Amino acid sequence: MREFVRTHIARLPLEYRVLHRQFLLRVIDLEALSIEADIPRFLGQFAGVLMMISLVQALGTLMFPPPPALYWHVEQSAVSRMMLVIGLIAVLTWDNIFPDRRDAMILGPLPVKPGIILLAKISASAGLLGIAILALNFASSFSRSLVFGGAGGWLGIFRYFVSYWFTMVASAAFLYGAVLTIQGTTAYLLPRRLFLRVSAFLQLAAFGVFLVAYFLAPSVDTHAQLATLGSRSPLAASPILWFFALLNQCNGSLPAGALWLAQRAWIALACAVAGATVSLLVCYLRTMRKTVEEPDLVPAGHAVRWMPKLGGSLQTAVLLFTLRSLRRSRQHRVVLALFLSIALAFSLHLLRQAPRWGATTPMTTDFAMSTLWILVFSVLAFRAVFPLPISLTANWVLRITQLRPPQQYIAAVWRTLLLLAVLPAWLAAVSLSLSYRPFPQTAAHLAVLLALGFIFADLSLIGFYKIPFTCSYVPGKSNFQFLFWTGLGVFILLMVFMLQIEYPALHSPKQSAYLLLVLGGAAIVLRIFNHWQAKSAVLYFEEPVQEIIIKLGLMQALPPAPIAGKT
User: Is-cis flag, bond preceding 438, omega within 30?
Assistant: First the structure.
C-alpha cells in the first residue's frame, strides 16, 4: 500500500510536490520562529491532543453510555466541537491559502503556473483540515456508531458511521469555505491597504464569534422543542443545528417536520464551496497583482502622540512597547483574542444569567467560577503572546540599549502583566458582581480574586527573563500535549479549590480572613522568589539551542599506531 501511494505521488509534478510541502510547513509565520523550530513536531503534538480528546470521549461513551434522551445533545456537541476546531484553524491560517507578497515576489519569476500554486495551497490546507478531522473523530466515531446506531444492528451501525463522518467533513467544509468566501470577497472589493486593515478586524471578530457560539449556543434536545422551532426563530439560524439535522437525515432518524433544517445545511454547504472556489480563482487570476503593485504598509492615522507616564521611564517604555506591538501586529492580536474570547464568553454567560436591573440575588458558585476563569484566561492571554517576537531582526536595538540591571526589566514586565491582564479582569469581576449580595461575601470573593491574580502573574513569569516580543520562538520545543494535559489538571484543581475551599469560606468572616491570609502569604513568597531569581538572571533574545555532541567511536575501532623505532 505504501509503495502504491509513493508511486502515484511520484507521478505528480515536481513543482506541486515541493510547494505542497512548503505551504504545509508555513502554518506558523516563519519570520517569527527560531532557526531550530520544528514545525512538524508541533503539528504532531497538536494532532496528538485532538486524538486524546477523541479517545477520552470514546471511552466515556462506551463505559457510560448516555440515555437515548441525550443522543441529540451529544450529537450537537460533536458538531459544535468540530466546527470550533475548524474555525480556529481557519482563523489561525487566515492568509495562508491566498497569495501574499512573498508568493508573488519569489514564485512569480519562476516558471510555475498560478494554477499549480493554487492547487498546492488548497491541498496543503485540506491536509491540515484532514489531520484535525481525523484526529478529533477517529475513536469517537466508532464508539458513537456502536452506541447510537446499535439498535439497528450492523447495518444501523454502518449507516450511522458513514453519516457521522459525512456530517463532520461537510460541516468542516462549510465553515472553512465560508471563511474563504469572506476573505476573497473583501480582497476583491477593497484596495490592498484597506483590505489589510479590514482583514485584521475580521480575523479578530471571527475568533470571538466561533468561541462565543461554542460556549453560548443553545441546543434542541427533544422532539417537542424541534416541533415548535420555526424558520424565523433565532435558533434556526445556527449552522450547528443545520448539520445536526443533516446527520439525522442521513441516518434516517430526522422527523419529517425538520427536513427544512437539513435543506439549509445542503444549501449552506453548496454556497460555501462555490463561494470559496470563485474567491480563490478570482484572487489568483485577477487580484494577485495587487500584492505587488500596492504596498502592504497601512499609513498611520492621526492619533494622539502624548502618552501618560506610568511609573518610571523603564516601566513606561516596556508598557508602551507592549501596547504598540499589540496594536501593530495582527498575529499577536489573534493569539491574544484566542484567550480573551474565552474570557468574553464567560462574561456573556454571567450577563445572561444575571438578575434583572435593580434586583439582587445571593452569590452563586457559577458566578465565582466564571470570574475565576475570566482572570485565568486574561493572564494566559498575555503570557502566551509575550514570547512571540514582532520583528526578530530588530531586537539588536534592545540588546545594545540595555543600560540597567536585568531585574529592573523583569520587574517592569511583571507590572505590565498586572496592568494589562489582572487589573482589567478584576475590574470586570467587580462590575459583574454589583447585583450580588451580601456585600461582605462579594467583597471577600473579589479580594480572593485579586490575591489569585498576583499569584498567577508570578507563577506565569517564573523563568521568563525576556522583554515581551523580542525573543525568538520555537514551537516544536514546547511539549504541547504536556501543556494541554497539565492545564486540564490545573483546571480541575481550581474547580476543587473554588467549590470545596473558597466558596464555603465566603460564608464565614473568620474563614475568609484565614483564606486571604494564606493567599496573601503565597503571593508575597512568590514575589520574593521571583525577585531573588531575577538578581542573577540574564536577559536573552534567542531561544537557547541545546548542544548535542555525538560520538562516532572511530578511535576505538582503529588499530593501535606503531611505536617509532619498533618494527
Answer: yes
* Tens of pLDDT, residues 19-34: 877 777 665 554 444 4
- Read off the amino acid at residue 42: F
What are the CA-CA distances from residue 542 to residues 416, 419, 463, 470 (Å)?
Answer: 22, 26, 14, 8
What burial class does residue 470 get, using C-beta atoms within 10 Å of its C-beta: 0-12 exposed, 13-18 middle, 19+ buried? buried
- Helix (H) or strand (E) holding 437, with range, is strand 436-437
pTM above 0.90, yes or no: no
- In three-state form (DSSP H/G/I as H, E/B as E, the rest C), the secondary structure along 523-537 is HHHHHHHHHHHHHCC
Q: How many H-runs (helices) and E-runs (strands) does the chain carry?
A: 24, 2
Question: How do residues 264-304 score in pLDDT, each as one tens digit?
Answer: 999 999 999 999 999 888 877 766 666 655 555 555 555 44
Give residue 142's domain range.
2-293
304 in a domain, yes or no? no
Q: Are both 152 and 9 inside the same structural domain?
A: yes
Cα 440 to its chain centre, rounded Å, is 37
Q: How many CB atoms sit inside 10 A of residue 463's CB? A: 9
Scanning the structure block, which residue is given the C-alpha cell 469572506? 182
439-460 helix and 423-432 helix, angle to the nearest 10 degrees: 160
Does residue 178 share a domain with residue 38? Answer: yes
549, part of any domain: no
101 plus 243 within the same structural domain: yes
Cα distance between residue 401 and residue 541, in whole Å: 13
Asked if residue 158 belongs to a domain, the reply is yes
Unique residue bearing C-alpha cell 491532543: 49
Q: Say how many domains are in the chain.
A: 2
Cα distance between residue 187 and residue 191, in whole Å: 7
In a domain, 285, yes or no: yes
Query: Residue 458: CA atoms inside 13 Å, Cβ hemisphere, count?
Result: 20
Statement to judge: residues 355 and 248 lie in one domain:
no
By C-alpha distance, which of 412, 456, 457, 391 is closest to 319?
A: 412
Contacts within 8 Å (CB) and 24+ apart, 106-114: 107/19, 108/292, 112/15, 112/19, 114/284, 114/285, 114/288
